[in-house]
Write a structure and sequence with these properties.
Strand content: under 5%
Largest sheet: none
Distance between the termini: 97 Å
Structural class: mainly alpha
Helix content: 55-70%
Oligomer: single chain
Amino acid sequence: MTRPKIKLPKNTADKIEKLLPSIKDLNEYKRLQCIYFRAKYDYNAKTISALTGYTEQTVRDLHSLFIKGGFKALKIKDKGGRYNSLFSIKEEKELIDKFEKEGKKGGIIEVSKIHKVIEEKSNKKVAKSTTYRILDRHNWRKITPRPYHPKSNPEKQEQFKKT
């Protein structure tokens, strides 16, 4: 014996008709379509899954989500983020700015010094690659003078270039 179908609010189809043209994300559009087809045409999950490309169970889950939480429940959450960061971007910038002042004076900045400060501030051992990623995130790069041979003769090099 099947369970009785829970009815959606009466104005649901009208609200979705107004929303659909403004949706730019395909997945969000298809999620709204699942609700729309049920509200407007009273299609079952099997028919809606054939129309949208979702599985029947996904369609049922979306209907359940909508009934429990409304339109907010259908919104797709953003992926990614800085969940395991040592510092916020602002804190990283403040830490790097101290060394930047020294660099602008003409001093040489060693990554090992920055690395030690990062470890002290975070109170944990940090991989050197983390320090390099922090520096890269703030557009720091390694600048070194071009290598030259200690016995090179600039005059002979210029003569060679002329011939």
